[in-house]
Amino acid sequence: MGVSRAGDRVIHFHAALISEENYQSDRYYPPFFSAITNTENWFGGPNAVEHIKGQTVFPGSEPFPSETLRDSRFSYTVRDNKTVSLPHSELQQRYLNPWAVIGDWSQADDVQFAGRELYRDYLRVVLARNTPDGKQQLFLDEKTGFPVKLDFDEPHYLWGQRHVEYIYSTWIEQSGIQMPGASFRMADGDVELSETLGSFELIAASDAAAKLEMPPQPSGPVPDLPAYLTAKPPKVTQVSANTYLLTDPGYAEAVTLVNGKVYVFDATQGEERARLDAEQIVKLFPGKHKINVVITDLAWPHVAGLRYWVANGATIISHRSAQPFLEKIVARQWTLKPDQLQQHHAKFNFVGIDRQQAIAGGKIVLLPIDGIGSEIALAGFIADDRFLWASDYVQDIENPTAYATDVWNAVQRAHLQPKQVAAEHVPLTDWEKIASLQR
Q: CATH number, domain at 271?
């Protein structure tokens, strides 16, 4: 690739990074919308540091800036000239740069020859090493020694684990070195990240010294996942005598006791959050009660607790169109770190809703929101409390939004009169606040 020719100089390049937002698009199947970041990058130094400045375009937002520093162990974002440590999962973008990968492998002392394997039409040399995240394999082209693929299994909060491949192709030579014009991250065979390289050059290390200086190491352990996926004991907010919100820094959920049965609105974050919710439900509603879980939206973090509730015999209620996706989640084999459902198989009891429907003796009304931006999503209305659970579709209570308009229209079609509303990212709020935005 020209490593010896690069010497101690720094690679400076521009690129476009495309992130397929499979975990939060308007459907659980492709096509997915993309977040697109135009980046300026510096890479090099004795510790193989990357410094990335970018501008990201996301549906409905102004382009917003980002700045990241990372090496093989830590990742930081730069905000207001201060560095903030990022979760370990943020390092996944580093693997798009094969220069960083080769640098990391060159420093490892346990690299072994693992054989040869046919990959992308040619026989490749396969090397293997163990990392704190598990075993990795590096596929090298036998003809040239160039890296073709980095390969490993990665834990995942919804799927248990996924087979991840970083693929390097369309190599380009400039300034006496070669870099891939296109790099991809694939998970279980689907592209999640792609980076298209523009022009690149070698610059003197002195010209980039400040850009490649890493901050001091974090004083404590770095979390594996971002805060919104890290379960904490939920705060309890009372809506009425039998209805409560359970809220942690990532997500709110709602629980109610109706006719001796517990209804849980949404199952976010994962098994640990669901377990914490279950412990709180026992405190709020002592005794043994049948559990029903209403899944209102299918973004991956919104359904990651599903398997826990299925393992514990809950009935799952969701939009009829959600059934294939939820069945896929339940059927997934968690082989890397078996969860409760993997260890104790349970039947998937599913009830599908595709039109307004009263349940619990008419005391709960489930209604498809059915706006152009909220298809196959549900809202729930607890009649005695005049309380509306708006799923993830009320997020901004200060400005009009398409999401809130969809919810408002659904409520009007159903001839409901809420008094209060809450959602996954919105605390208990007077419904009049939402109504005023429509006016």
A: 3.60.15.10
